[in-house]
Structure formats: C-alpha cells, structure tokens
Amino acid sequence: MAKSKKSTKAKSKAPAKKPVRKVVKLAAKSTSKNTIKSAGKAASKSAKSAKPAKSAKKANGNGAYPKPVAKPFGEAGKALEGVRILDFTHVQSGPTCTQLLAWFGADVIKVERPGVGDITRGQLVDVKGADSLYFTMLNHNKRSITIDSKHPQGKRVLDELIKKCDVLVENFAPGALDRMGLTWDYIHKVNPRMIVASVKGFGPGPYEDCKVYENVAQCTGGSASTTGFRDGLPLVTGAQIGDSGTGLHLALGIVTALFQRNRTGRGQRVLCAMQDGVLNLCRVKLRDQQRLKAGPLTEYSQYGEGIPFGDATPRAGNDSGGGQPGRILKCKGWEDDPNAYIYFITQAPVWQAICDVIGEPGWKTDPDFATPKARLPRLNQIFERIEEWTKTKTKFEAMDILNQYDIPCGPILSMKELAEDESLRKTGTVVEVDHPTRGKYLTVGNPIKLSDSITEVKRSPLLGEHTDEILTDVLGFKAKDVAEIKNSGALSAPQKEEKAA
Ligand code: CAO
C-alpha cells in the first residue's frame, strides 16, 4: 500500500519509477532450494519458540509435541510417510487426490482391473502401446496391483489390503463399492481405523445415483451459468474444477480425518460431491446472487451499459470477480496470436499511476474518473482507453511496465509458454519425467510446496507392475498363497473368451 501511495504522487507525464520487478521471470531468481531454506529457517525458529501453554495444550487436545528433529529440513522423511492408501480411484477426480497424497509421502497402492486398468491408460493415446498422458500425469508416485475385486481370491487380497491400509479412496459410480461387497459397515468391521473417502457426482438428494463427469459438475455446481458472456451460451472452463477441484477437496478431507483419528482412534467416511466442490469454488457468485436483492451489481459491465439485471447472477465475461474492476485487453500482435492479451486490473490505490502510464493524467482529478464509484458506469470507456495503450506493447512489455507501479496485471500465457517457462521448471511446478514405454514427457508437479516434505515426482506405474511386491512385502502372503491366488485368475485378465474363439 505504501508503495502504491508513492506512485499515485507521480507527476502527470512520467510516473516515478521504482526498481523493475520482473514478475514473469521472478521465480527464476529464487530457486526452490532458496525458498525451502528460508521457509525452513522460519519454521525452525517458530518451532523453537513455540512452547504451548498448558491450557492451550488442553484446549486443542493434541497432547505434547515431539522434540523437533535435528535433521535438516527436507531430510526427516515426508509428511505422510507411514500412511498407506488403498487407491480404488480412476479417471481424474480420485487420482488427483491420491497423487497429491503420494507426493506427500503416502504409500499409494492403486488397485486396477486386470487386463484393463484405469480406463484413462488407453484414452487419448498419443504414443501407440504406451500409457496415455491422461493416465501418467495423474498417477505419479503410486504402485499398481491388478485385482478382480469380484473374484473370491481377489476379495481375499482386498481384505488383507483393508487391514493394512489407513485410507480407502474411491470414485466409482454410486453403489459400485457396495456391489463389490465393500460397504462401510464391512470395511469398518475389518479395520475400524480405516478412513473411507469418496468422490461422487452429487451428495444425498434427488441426483445421488447419477454418474457425473467434469462438465456435468461445472454445469450443476453454478460455474457454467456464471461463465461466459451475458449474451452468449453458458461456458465450461478449461480448468478441471469438477474433477481436479474435487480431488483437492477430498485430499484435505482425508488429511483432516487422519488428524482426527490421532485423537479418536477410529476412521470415518469422507464424502466430496463434485457439485459441492464446484459450488464452493463459485462461492463469490452465490455472494452476488444475494447482493442482487440490494440493487444492481455495479462492478459488472452490464451496469455501466445500462442493461437491467435479472433474478440470477449473470455471466460477466472477463469482468473481475472482486471489487477491483478488471478486463482482458488486446496487446501488440493480437491480430495473429490468440494469446496476445493481458489481464488488467484498475485497482483503486494505483489509479493515478494507471492514468499516467496510459497518458490520461487528467483522469486523476476529473470527477467522472477520480473515484472508484464514479468510474463504475464508465468501465467500458476506461478499458477501451487502456487497451489503446496495451495494443502498443507486447503482453510481456506491458507486464514489465505495469509492475514497476504495482498495477496488478497478468499476461495470458499459453500452454506452450507455460511448458517452456524456466521458472516453473526450477520450482518443480513443471517437471520432465522419463517413462519406460513412452519416453520423456512433461507433467505438472506438486503445486503445494512444503519446506520439510520435498516432492520428488516419480513416473506412474505400469499396469500391475507392483502386484508381486505388494502381495509379499506389504501383505505377507507366502509363495504357496501367491501361487494359489494367481492360479485362480483373480489377478489376471480373463482369457476364457479368447480360448473359446
Ligand atoms: N474389479 C472388478 N470390477 C471392477 C474393478 C475391479 N478392479 N474396478 C471397477 N470395477 C467395476 C465396478 O465394480 C463397476 O461394476 P458394477 O457397476 O457392475 O458394479 C464397473 O467396474 C464400472 O465402474 P463405474 O460405474 O464407476 O465406471 P463407469 O465407467 O461406468 O463410470 C464414472 C465412470 C466416472 C462416470 C463413475 O465412476 C462416477 O460417476 N464416479 C463418481 C463421480 C466421479 O468421480 N466422476 C469424475 C470422473 S473423472 O471425469
């Protein structure tokens, strides 16, 4: 804020510059190691000084914390080390969740149908004979075991897994887990400490039995009705807020249930409905729904355009969802490059700097433009004028200039630009992984950085790659039992039809 005040004092022609902050390349300067080190120091400091008072201990019921380990940050094991996950997930929502848990150090055992596996292994295939990117990018750091969960010997293996795991995660269609005989009552009886976490399309109610995919959730969770332009169709977004968004919610639910289990000693069910997850992410649109009662939504473009509001939150194009008006504006080259645009926010504290940058110093004092309230009915005019300026700069030039004055903005980065961004590579947000059948590919690494639990992104497992080691090392089956289970056909693809033909 203090910095912004400085820039607002700038004289009309050339606003006072402060040292350039190259935000796009900023992350390149601070390597992940540096970030981790400093976060680590801060954490270690607070850990040393954090001696909770006796009453505080009682209040939150955590009991005594162990003495801080002496090992350097990042070398004391991973956050979820010791937690074992029975991963019954498929497609995107569930795998997003269990991948995160695996990155935090949980041993994630993915149970897949023999011969087929997670259906995404074979969807959108780009390298013949190799697991698809759809699969590999959602199943890092996991182990794979193939089990026919409806075969009696498969049930035998699953029972042992239930005893040995802490969490069962699934996103089958409603009722599928029960049809396998794995009801909550059954699981809870076999292992009372087991947490059973599920993604479903809907929570209890009229649609609870429906199968749901990403875009259905975006439509039923309020995202589609509020995305797009007022006079156009409802739109779905490219961000997978229904699938990956719900997976994120579920991961938090699981970690929270694990934390509570430390106190209660028992597991519980965790349910995330995709509709609920999307609605949670659309919270501000429900806010606006209620604000409609108090009058028009003045920060929406349609207010300035004199178009009356209906009885539901309208689509607002690229208007900013907050109290600071923003738009996507053309930059130099927009005629040929579909991503030559910048998001520009006319944040009130930097209004004077904006006026100077775009060459409209008179707007700083003009009563029609000087205050946020006065500007609201004139947003189209204002953004058209700003766009005249942004069209003279590339999106990166505009970003560099605007950042000197703390004017919030962001270039529209293409997937190509993100894939090639050096700073994202350095922080481990974009990672190159090697895979035995498909070779090298790029993936998104763990977006959540912990200073004491460093993520190493390991390739996804081949179908059934770890079946033997899980049967023997995790479940302790003797060679005789392994042979019996394998010979029963419970772990392999059925071949009867081929023989008959
Ligand atoms: N052994 C034996 N059978 C197995 C098995 C295994 N290892 N793994 C799965 N199956 C069976 C299931 O038991 C089920 O059989 P029944 O219906 O006969 O009991 C069958 O495979 C199909 O499971 P499904 O209904 O979950 O899969 P689907 O392809 O028909 O539906 C989806 C997919 C995603 C629509 C559905 O699972 C769903 O609605 N899930 C909840 C919401 C969700 O997560 N959606 C997001 C998916 S990501 O876009």
Account of the 3D structure:
This protein is α/β, with parallel strands linked by helices and 501 residues long. The chain has 23 helices and eleven strands. The chain has helices at residues 2-8, 23-29, 32-49, 54-60, 93-103, 133-136, 152-164, 176-179, 184-190, 214-220, 243-264, 274-281, 283-291, 301-304, 351-358, 372-375, 379-390, 395-403, 415-420, 422-426, 467-474, 479-487, 496-500, and strands spanning 84-88, 107-112, 142-146, 167-170, 195-200, 269-273, 326-330, 341-345, 409-411, 430-433, 441-444. The strands form three sheets. A six-stranded parallel sheet has the order 3-2-1-4-5-6, with helices on both faces. A three-stranded antiparallel sheet has the order 7-8-9, with helices on one face. The longest helix is centred in the middle third of the chain and has 22 residues, at 243-264. The model is unreliable at 1-57 (pLDDT under 50). Oxidized coenzyme A binds at residues 91-94, 111, 113, 147-150, 171-173, 176, 179-180, 199-201, 211-214, 243.
